[in-house]
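Slide 14.
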Amino acid sequence: MAKRSSLFIRIVEGKNLPAKDITGSSDPYCIVKVDHEPIIRTATVWKTLCPFWGEEYQVHLLPTFHSVAFYVMDEDALSRDDVIGKVCLTRDTLATHPKGFSGWAHLTEVDPDEEVQGEIHLRLEVVPGTRACRLRCSVLEARDLAPKDRNGASDPFVRVRYNGRMQETSIVKKSRYPRWNETFEFELEEGAAEALCVEAWDWDLVSRNDFLGKVVFNVQRLRAAQQEEGWFRLQPDQSKSQREEGNLGSLQLEVRLRDEMVLPSDCYQPLVQLLCREVKLGTQSPGQLILLIEETTSTECRQDVATTLLKLFLGQGLAKDFLDLLFQLELGRTSEANTLFRSNSLASKSMESFLKVAGMRYLHGVLGPIIDRVFEEKKYVELDPSKVEVKDVGCSGLHRPQTEAEVLEQSAQTLSAHLRALLSSLSRSVRACPAVVRATFRQLFRRVRERFPSAQDENVPFIAVTSFLCLRFISPAIMAPKLFHLRERHADARTSRTLLLLAKAVQNVGNMDTPASRAKEAWMEPLQPTVRQGVAQLKDFITKLVDIQEKEELDLQWALSLQAPPVKEGPLFIHRTKGKGPLMSSSFKKLHFSLTTEALSFAKTPSSKCVNELNQWLSALRKVSINNTGLLGSYHPGVFRGDKWSCCHQRDKTDLGCDKTRSRVTLQEWNDPLDHDLEAQLIYQHLLGVEATLREKHRQLSAGPEAGPVLTGPGGAPEDPVAQLLQVLQDLREAHRSSPADSPPSEPSRVLELQT
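Slide 15: predicted structure.
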């Protein structure tokens, strides 16, 4: 059994930030660090003191992490970026919020004495003496210390303090992984101080030494233990008085910690097989476990449950069958065609997740060029007469401002051109659409047509497809391209308005230009000719999309499976750090890489679109190597130059690494490999939370007047799927109780430390 930890992070917005530029504004962005390792950088929002990001991330990380910190920065083009403030949430704080931390948090000042990181290796002993016992402290080495100098390293030394006496190690130049192997002794006297303090410092020639962190030990406990050795995490100096909060602004966050103990795969097989059998039987199943899961799932967690189920069945090759079952269940309880798939049902949420998992690369191919054109042109576009601002448009001729009518006409032409380009791209993309997506849409189209066969409902099957393809996939991606990885940065106000109007036009096309859709915003009328033409194009596209034959689909799926899809494509920035302090600026050298599950290649010129940042590359590299059985537990972050390693100054080229490998810190993305055991564990946890409701449902079904046909198991004994599910949950509960957890990575002992 292995423990898996993950963080859901949503960086919503900031407010009342201080002005850092001479214009009285700022260009804020956020950096997220887990135990001082940068893992996320949001987009920059230009010229604002109240930025909105709305960015979401899922981070997989070691269960032993200590804290997650959010730094708000001000981007500067000509100088080093300014630090505005930070919010730090410890693991203990997150553990006290089972449903997650959500709300506004005040930014606090970033104090260099609190920005400590790394660990120190110590051996502590109480040695008997003729007159009195002696306390022996051996300072062995340290790793991952904070870089305090411009060269990206430090010149560390250690001070050991006890009972008014202080002793120091030698200084190790230019290293964040120093080795000292020096021993100090202190006489233990009755009534003397009960605290031993070990402090790490960065030596500076011309300025004051920089604090690197400390560890404080309880000597009384050490007397009882006699000896202790291990790696101890360096702690900040918390002796300073707390600063006032509120004058640096606030950050709105949603952060949820999830710890899961994942059992071996065979433990989950009964649960997976039971759910798969229900999906294969479809609506013929008397128990209808999927329906029970939907009925017992609250609105707030329905998206998580839908995504988890979708991934589980995708891994079993049953995604299309699972979605088809949900389609049938929703169609069975829908009487009005105009309400079909309009609610946040399990079917709607599952289909949204399905399109993001299976159709994101397709979306990039269809929509990417149009989004790029909108961002590059930066044209002023407005159709609502009440919002037209002529002064923002410029001049159409010599010293003659455009009139409102000209602005509206030009805007309609621009939007019509973008809409025609999008629909044309979509019409040509039938073959590019993933086979499993086409098969799912074909099944949806067929089910809806069977449910609403009359001539007056001839558009309903088309609207059912477009309700997902256009309204829940393409339109949201147009309005927020950053969140769908179509752009690296958020749009400015002008571009955002253009994207919003284009998304509205796409929604009107997706609604098949119904009178109700037209009546909502009459000022969209100038686009009606293009919308009507688009409806015809979209219906033709859907007709071709759902007309692909099954054999042709399977052949295409086989051809796609022979290719090694890229995990990441784009630029990788090789950087050299410069500056001083915990948040240093860097100079970058740009190379263009392509990473697949089979190879890593690079060139000096770009071969693909720029869509990645450094932390995403590192995350992708870790994911590719995560199943490598020979993965090192430690490594050398430096190079072997001359006769020693540049990081730790060891002389032997084959010496063990000096820094821990962070192979398990990864960002979850839409193209990640499926983790079948984790998905099964998440389903088990959800079902465990609603077990009482399931038992009540089972009691009601058992006592009902209609028993219906029952499944028969081995030996012809009748089997009740709900009863089976409850038994599977009980077996998994027992498996969790009896299975010992894997030992976590070595953690420094805490028994001797003082909580300061």
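Speaker note: The first strand starts at residue 2 and ends at 15.
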